[in-house]
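User: Before I run my own analysis I want an independent prediction to cross-check against. Here's the chain; please return only the structure tokens and, at the end, one sentence I can use as a sanity check.
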Amino acid sequence: MKRFAAAALAALMAAGLSGCGWQTVDPDEARESIQVIAMDTVMIFTTYGEKSTHADYLSEDEVRRLESLLSRTDSESVVSQLNNAGGLGISVGEEVGGLLAAAEEYSLATGGAFDITIAPVVSAWGFTEEENRVPSQEELDGLLALVGPEHVTLDADAAALTPGTQIDLGGIAKGYASDRVAEILKENNIPRATISLGGNVLAWGDRPDGTPWRVGIQDPQNADRADAYAGMLKLENAFAVTSGGYQRFFEADGRTYHHIIDPATGYPADSGLTSVTVVADCDWDEVDGRPGVGTMCDALSTALFVMGEEKALDFWRSGVYDFDLVLVTEDGRVVVTDGIANEFEASEESGYSYEVVS
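Assistant: Structure tokens:
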């Protein structure tokens, strides 16, 4: 795959994050930006500092390494080998074992709203196949019998699946990749960067003028417009991960079906939400490359979308994890938790009403 110079980040970020690679005399102003297609999404790495170019290409190489390790469709990947082991235990290595343990933690914490074993159900709807379709209830019932964290057995760096169970780490892979990229930025003393891995954004440091990075939350009602936002976040040293039903969907018999499946029903989640953005601080000193804040944000954005507004806010208030939320609802509201209310800007043109909750 060729490496491309990035022309813009308009799809997820406001002006100020875009530009092609260039260098200046001041190493703090030196900038490199590349665009990569990996993990079924467009990724843009924009870094500053003396090692900006080096860090960008190290980040690309790391994302591609993780894709070859975690891809469900790559027959050589560890995930594929586990899926095809026929119920036998295999060595998955410390890294994948750590991700499987993190997935189990988030599944249990969210009451099953996040579940990597939902993979065959997602495939039944055609979201990983060439054509979409509406599966029968009988088919879904058979597949759901093999969904749940109890069907994954972990023992250090070894794992086994109940025969017939399949996993897909796509729900946390980009989040984990962002954790690994954060480690690369730290190791190379990158003073500032914006990393966009599809709906996963890492705002590292601040902008060259000392102001926060501006990260746009896509308006689900106008998903075909890159400049349509439900709001804007002003972030420094933070992850922002968005999940929404508008990102992948199909229509059949007059109904719309999106790709975020509720593990309890086997159907696309009918939660009253159109998007969920999870925001959490990234502490430079605590970045260590293991499943961390980026992984957490990725898992929770999916789980809280499935839960719906009330349960998502209850989960946030529980304090189990440290994060904040921006919820966009089907009835035209944007709900912002008070921890990031001062960093959120409403979009006057969106037509939404805005609420801050505590």
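Sanity check: Confidence is low (pLDDT under 50) at residues 1-25.
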